[in-house]
Specification:
The protein is 38% helix and 15% strand. It has 6 helices and 7 strands. The chain has a 7-stranded parallel beta sheet, with helices on both faces. Helix 3 runs parallel beside helix 4 and helix 4 packs parallel to helix 5. The longest helix has 26 residues. The structure holds NADP nicotinamide-adenine-dinucleotide phosphate. NADP nicotinamide-adenine-dinucleotide phosphate binds next to helix 1.
Length: 255
């Protein structure tokens, strides 16, 4: 028994659905009859062609613009969602930043740049807790609900044996602390809501692409497999799991 058994005519939201694992959740939920309404956020429609095509073919999918670094877009998106769906059953934070045209993960102390550390923190950590704040009224109702936040095992301080990737690691460790703390507050304000931090495993997306060399083939998951595994973990969640940091196979990870 777990959260998934309660799902019926449910509504779900994925934040960061333009590509990668977030887009995978959208596809998965569109094929899952337990979900009646699927909300998905994108940052720039011109770069979210696959999501747009899905929305054109599925009336249960609604798209919302949202950039986690712009609080007004978060407020507007959730207000819009709330006007259509007073009760949200599942929200997934699939936003993440590891590299882009201006940013590469640091291999050495010599590459530390404070403004890059702040960018990692803003996207990977601050965005998720802003969502926790705005989602509380829609996740709080008489049915069980889940806020699943995609973290990363490299954010584990106890498991850090390799070093490097200062900003990404630290932002994921911060993400873990923020969501763990929010789980305690939700426990008081909305005890039916479970917050969980989820490590997806190395997944074949643009985020991991430059670092896939050396990853054994059976350790590099296609997005469909990652999403199916994470949904199995989410489906099995119970209230006592709130605030936990879980691997893709459901096993707890060290903080
Ligand atoms: N792939 C892996 O091997 C792996 C391993 C461990 C953990 N993770 C975690 O899994 C999550 C999903 O990663 P992924 O592999 O799917 O990466 P991805 O393919 O690079 O997707 C990242 C997503 O985050 C969105 N995003 C970035 N900045 C944003 C912002 N300011 N506001 C709103 N959305 C923003 C992107 O939107 P745009 O398209 O607009 O840029 C995109 O939808 C991340 O938290 C990542 O850290 C991934």
């Amino acid at each position: 028994m777990g959260f998934g058994d309660s799902l019926e005519q449910a509504s779900a939201l994925v934040v960061g659905a333009g590509r990668g694992i977030g887009l995978g959740f959208v596809r998965h939920w569109l094929a899952d009859p337990r979900f009646d309404q699927v909300y998905a956020t994108y940052r720039d429609l011109s770069r979210a062609g696959e999501l747009l095509a899905l929305a054109q073919g599925h009336t249960k999918l609604k798209l919302l613009p949202l950039d986690v670094t712009d609080e007004a877009t978060v407020a507007d998106a959730i207000a819009h969602l709330q006007s259509q769906t007073p009760r949200l059953h599942l929200a997934v934070y699939a936003v993440g930043l590891l590299h882009d045209s201006q940013l590469q993960p640091e291999k050495s102390l010599l590459q530390i740049q404070p403004e890059n550390l702040l960018r990692y923190f803003q996207v990977n950590a601050a965005g998720s807790i802003l969502l926790a704040r705005y989602l509380l009224p829609v996740l709080k109702h008489h049915q069980p609900s889940v806020y699943g936040v995609i973290s990363a095992k490299v954010g584990s301080i106890g498991d850090n044996h390799l070093g490097g990737w200062y900003g990404y690691r630290a932002s994921k460790a911060a993400l873990n602390m923020l969501i763990k703390t929010a789980a305690l507050e939700y426990g008081r304000k909305s005890p039916q809501t479970i917050l969980a931090l989820l490590h997806p495993g190395t997944t074949d997306t643009s985020l991991s692409l430059p670092f896939q060399r050396g990853v054994p083939r059976d350790k590099l998951f296609p997005v469909t497999r990652t999403v199916a595994q994470l949904m199995a973990v989410i489906d099995g969640l119970n209230p006592e799991d709130s605030g936990s940091f879980l691997n893709w196979d459901g096993q707890p990870l060290p903080w």
